[in-house]
Amino acid sequence: MLWLIILGVVGLVFAPAMWLRPSPRQQRVTGLRDLARERGVAVRLERSPLHEGGDTLPAYRWRYPPQRPGPDFLLVRDAVASQALKPFLPGWRWRVEPLRPLPETAHHRLEVLLESLPEDTVVVESSAASLTLWWDESCPNEAFADLDERMKALSDDLGGRPDYPEAHRRAQLPNVPPSVGG
């Protein structure tokens, strides 16, 4: 009987510590985020660009260099998109289409990327600042290197193709004070 009481007390002491221990998924996701950050990818939990729900999702961002901004577009997976949106590839629809056509190499890389993305990827977004992947982080850590290479290659192809090149050029001009006195 004494042993049962001792086991019960020991169990009560260690139970809270077991509840605080991260689950295997939490451990994997933490490792994935650390790996992404080591490779230069910005990772943040943010409100997703989806219309309905707007749940908080992990956003993995591959930044364009400031002197080479990217185009603006937003592709949404069919499963979470309105059927009114223009189709791009089977399974993907444009919510925001780029103003200028993508170069052939970038268009091809984008198609290959979309076909290889994990099923839990819901949005691929590009802005002047970055190329962003919105997903639920189902990719195993070993497969992230391949995803990273594909995103970097696409980012390289899209960089320097802003939708508003004139505004970007004006923003890059140094501030020159007006001449004073003649």
From TrEMBL:
It comes from the Bacteria. Residues 155-182 are annotated as: Disordered. Residues 155-169 have a biased composition (Basic and acidic residues). This is Preprotein translocase subunit YajC. It comes from Halomonas eurihalina.
